[in-house]
Structures are given as structure tokens and as C-alpha cells.
Amino acid sequence: MQRYPGKSWIIISLGILCVFVFGLEKCILGTELSLIPITFLFLAVFLWWIDLPARHNEPIIKKTVHEIMDHVVDEDAKAAGVEVVKSIVYHDKKGTYGIVEASNLLVLLSNKEVWEYPIIYHGPNNDRDAYFECEKKYSVSENQTHIKKINPDRWKGFLGLFKLSDKSFLGVLLIVILVIGGLSFAGFVWLLENFKWWYLLVIVGYICVCSFTEWIYSELPCNLLNGIRYVASFPLAVTYLLFEIGMPFVTIIGTYLFVVLFAFGVPALLLIGLGKTDMIVLRLETIVFIVFSLGSIICSNYHSMTKWIIRHSPLQDWGNHRYESYRQELADYLIHPSNIVYALYLVYFLFLAISGFVQIQDGGYLISEGGDAAVIKAFLVFIAFTNMRSKQKDAQMDVKELLQKTLLLFEHDK
After folding, report:
1. DSSP annotation of 2
2. Cα pseudo-dihedral 313, 319, 320, 325, rounded to 10
3. Among 382, 311, 290, 370, CA closest to 343
4. What is the mean pLDDT of the chain?
5. Who has greater pLDDT, 75 or 393?
6. Is residue 53 scored above 60 in pLDDT?
7. What are the φ and ψ backbone dihedral angles of 9, each rounded to 5 degrees?
């Protein structure tokens, strides 16, 4: 009679979980969209559960092979004058069922060679069970599949096709950071705004599923369950990747945000406060003109002030980790006057392009007639001030000599 696998609580728990998820969807949303994927998931796990005894042996085989062969590999490597980088048990398979044709212990060495130690399977017979035999003689691998599987540099040849200069690479990197970071932030805000409690429920449910999968794998390690773990952790890996890309995005946007808040925000608050006290009456368009003019001039010409802003912002180096010093160095580089001038020209260019298109196409204005005029006039003031500062270097003016010549005007003949 066929012997069915143990651990029946696995299939029972999954069945209860599937019924719960389907019932939750039916009660809250009134739909049955999850019925088909849940059914396929249950059948896949059920088939795996039936084949559990055979699958359960694979991690044990890999662990045993390493326990037996690691010392042998180290001795062979020492005799050859090389070091072992890493070793893995690899199965050559064919067909959609993954029929194993051969097994090897692959060893990557410091000289980039790959050694193969054959693992031979002996089937069962009347007087003994099946077993594996590890051969202790190696051969240098010429199998490209084996080499690419264990060699961590296997993608370098592909990446070498895309040769970029440092300037081009920086441009591509910044575009990727800004686009992915911006889309991630916008997506997070959109999800939070439109789904709210559902968003929180999905996160809690995902954490529960990951924890449940990890717990099952710790109780019963096998390749299939390990694959499910990887699939379940895919959203977490994507989130981590977005977070890693998002941190430079936060640094870049945060740097300019803090500078703008101080350079543009403080003059705006002062002018609005004076207007509230009736000491001075200014139109909104006038305030926009003054704020944009002063803010642009302060950002681009007073580096010590913008540096002070970064030193007293959350982007400063708190001394907790080396990463914070790198972040502050990037922020200091971004607020260099030449970079600020470029950023301001880019912002004004985009504003003029969009405003001009809207006005020509529809006869309208991006802000209002007065608002658009105020921003454009502020840009003209910024251009004039920037050109004046650049021309100042070309002016032949000695301050001491000018002072002496000016004082001579106060002398009169007696």
C-alpha cells in the first residue's frame, strides 16, 4: 500500500487559509476573482505535499556533500596554490520535469578556474537502498553552463557592451534615480490616498504570509518551499530596491527643498507678515516677483548661506554612520553655485516652455496673467544679476586706487 506523507497540518492550514481569503473577498468586495488563483495554488501545494518525502532529501544531500567534500577541496586547492572562492552542488537537468542527468560539486577558484567533482547516484537494489557517491578527483570544467552558474562575473561581458563615459553614466544614473524615485513616491501617495485601510491590510497580510512561509520552511526545508519563499519575498526585494534608489532621490530632492524653503520661504513669510500688519501693502504678484528674485540670487551667489542651511538640516552628518557623511558631501556638491545656477536655469526654462505653450495654444496662463509675468520678470532680474557678477571679474578696478582717487576730489586748491 502506498505510504502518504506526514505533516498533514500543512495542507489543512493552507486549505483553511484559502477559504478565509476567498470568504474575505466575497464578504467585503462581493467578487470571486481570487477563486481560480487560490485553486491553482492549493493544487500546486497539494502535489508538492504528495511528493514530499523525495523532495525533503535534497537539502540534506547538499549539506552532506559539503560536509564530506569541503575539506578535500581545500586540500586540493592548497596543493594547487590557489584559494577557494565558493562551491555549490549543481544538477544537470533536462525536460520540463527536471530529470537529473548528472550531479557535480562545482568549485570556483581565485584564478577563475572551475573544478568539477562528480557526484554519482547508485540506485536501490534487493540488499541496499539508493545512495550518492562523491568522487574525490576533480577535473577542470569546460562546460559553459557550469562556469556561468558559479562565476559571479558572468555578466561583466554583457555589461561591457554598454561603454559609457563618466558624464553619460552620471546622466543616466541621475535620470534613473529621479524617475524611479519620483514614480515610487507618487505611487505611494496615490495608494495611500485611494486605498487607505486596504493598503494597510495588504501590508499586514503580506507580512503574515512571509512569516508563515518562513516558519514552514524552518520546520520542513525543501527546494519547492524555498522557491515559494523566494516568490513571496519578491515584493519585499522590490521594495528594498526602490528604497535603496529612493535614498539618493530623497537626498537630491531634500537638498534643494531645504534650500528653497529658506531662500524663498523666509522672504515670503516676511513680506506676508508685513502685509498683515498694514506696514506695507503689496499685491500677490509683487510678492511672487520679489520672492523669486531674492531666492534665486541668494541660492546662486551666497554659498556660505546655503551650506549653513544644509549643516542645520536633517541631511547633516550626525556622526552615526559613514553613509551620513557621504550624504552630506553629495548635498554640499549639489548646492555649489554653478550647480544651483544650472538648476535654476532648468526650472525657469521649463516654466517658460510650458507657459509659452499654454498661452499660444489656448490663450491662457500657467498661473495667471500677473503670476506668469512676475515669474518671467524675476527670471530677467536673475539673469541680469548673474551677468553682472560674471562681468565684475572682467572689470579693471583696484579698490585701493579707486579710494585714493575718490579722496582726491575732496582736496581743493588754496
Report:
1. P
2. 70
3. 382
4. 76
5. 75
6. no
7. -65, -25
Please, are residues 42 and 13 in contact by the beta-carbon 8 Å criterion? no
Q: How far apart are CA 53 and CA 409, in angstroms?
A: 107
Task: Give the span between the Cα atoms of 36 and 25, in whole angstroms.
Answer: 13
- Compute the half-sphere exposure of residue 291: CA atoms within 13 Å on the CB side of its CA: 21
- The amino acid sitting at 310 is I
What integer is the mean pLDDT of 18-29?
A: 76
378 burial level (CB within 10 Å; 0-12, 13-18, 19+): buried
Task: Provide the pLDDT confidence category of residue 3 given band limits of 50, 70 and 90.
Answer: very low
Specify whether the CB–CB gap between 60 and 67 falls below 8 A.
no
Q: Which stretch of DSSP H or E encloses residue 116?
A: strand 114-122
Taking each helix axis from N to C end, the angle separating 234-263 and 303-311, rounded to the nearest 10 degrees, works out to 130
Distance of alpha carbon 300 from alpha carbon 123, whole angstroms: 78
- How many C-beta neighbours within 10 Å does residue 114 have? 23
Tell me if 134 sits within 8 A of 119, measured CB to CB.
Answer: yes
Residue entry with cell 565684475: 392
Residue 1 has what pLDDT?
33
Point out which residues pair with 351 in neighbouring strands: none
Rounded CA-CA distance 317/332 in Å is: 11
Neighbours of 66 (CB within 10 A): 15
Please, what sign has the CA dihedral across residues 178, 184, 188, 189? Answer: positive
Q: Which has the closest alpha carbon to 77: 140, 120, 134?
A: 140
Q: Please report, for residues 51, 140, 143, 287, the alpha-carbon distance to residue 54 in angstroms, rounded to integers and kept in the order given.
A: 6, 31, 28, 77
Q: Which of the four pLDDT bands, split at 50, 70 and 90, describes residue 153? A: low
Q: Are 165 and 140 in contact (CB under 8 A)?
A: no
Q: How far apart are the two ends of the chain, measured CA to CA in Å?
A: 135
Q: How far apart are CA 108 and CA 113, in angstroms?
A: 6
Give the angle 171-174-178 at the CA atoms, nearest 5°: 140
CA angle 285, 291, 296 (to 5 degrees): 130
Query: Is the alpha carbon torsion for 277, 280, 286, 289 positive or negative?
Result: negative
Q: Where are the alpha helices (DSSP H) in 363-398?
A: 369-392
119-137 b/e (C-beta count within 10 Å ≥ 16 → b)? beeeeeeeeeeeeeebeee
